[in-house]
Specification:
The protein has about 350 residues and is of the alpha/beta class. The protein folds into 2 domains: about 230 residues, Rossmann fold (3-Layer(aba) Sandwich), CATH 3.40.50; about 70 residues, no CATH class. Helices cover about 30% and strands about 20% of the residues. The protein has 12 helices and 12 strands. A hairpin with a 2-residue loop joins strand 9 and strand 10. The longest helix has 18 residues. The relative contact order is 0.14. The C terminus is likely disordered.
Length: about 350
Amino acid sequence: MLEVKDLRVVLPLLEGNLVAADGVSFAIRPGRTLGLVGESGCGKTITAQSILKIAPRKARTDGRILLHYADRPATDIIGLGADDPELLKIRGGECAMIFQEPMTSFSPVHTIGNQLMETILLHRTRHRREAHDLAVAMLAKVGIPAPAETLKKYPHHLSGGMRQRAMIAMALASQPRLLIADEPTTALDVTVQAQVLRLMKDLQHDLGMAILYISHDLGVIARMADEVAVMYMGSIVEQAAVRDLLRTPMHPYTRGLMASVPRIGKKSGEPLQSIKGNVPVPINKPRACGFFPRCPVAIEGVCDRVVPPLTPVAAGHSAACFRYSEVVAAAGLDQGGANVH
């Protein structure tokens, strides 16, 4: 349905060129969820923004982002101009996005109804009465009580969970084939988070849409995704079916991420594990493994001079590491692997 090929996004700064995305490639199939996971600043959000061509204006974008159709050739989104009618159909129509904080995503001076109906009038119908009825139906579908009354309310009248449900309703109002969810539950408490995640899975099942789910939370990714891609310093360093990656992580960064997840039953006073060092700033990024300064199995003279390619290491499982076999053997993951709850 969507295919990203060798995406590279560079932001020119006074200090040099910041490589926000570096050779990112993945595909999402209809009805499936791809989880994009990594630390803050690793390039997850700008990758998503590039799909909708809403990356910062000065960003230089290369590569291909192909939106496939059953009845006509694929469209390369990167090749579309800002005012291209095809892009206007895709953005908010074929592909929609849920942002992290709904309070800052909604206009505070317009009602929920005005904003929801604007999307419907742009992508589905030109009749206001029909748009109103569809807006009421969408709010009801996402579990908002008294949907007709909610249309008259402003965003600040709703709780955080209800605002996020309204944001989901607005994203789905155009019946998109792809939903991009950029950490949509980060600002919610765990109970509301669970409700929103369940809602998204139910709506995906009903509508058959694909989801690109962006998060730093491996627990959420384990619950939501069918496949997962791990990003570090603008590059995908590991990609696999979610169960395979959680059981047998083959990149040392993925291993470090999973080891740093707090676990129930941990002894009191036992320190939390962390990945040593800090993430380097990807300005004038050298052609080497980005994880080299922090990697426990790095090879000097190799990892600091050559970029490891994303290589198939098992069926449906790829990793960008020269020493993936040693990572697996040292951790004993072939004996049962790790798990995230």
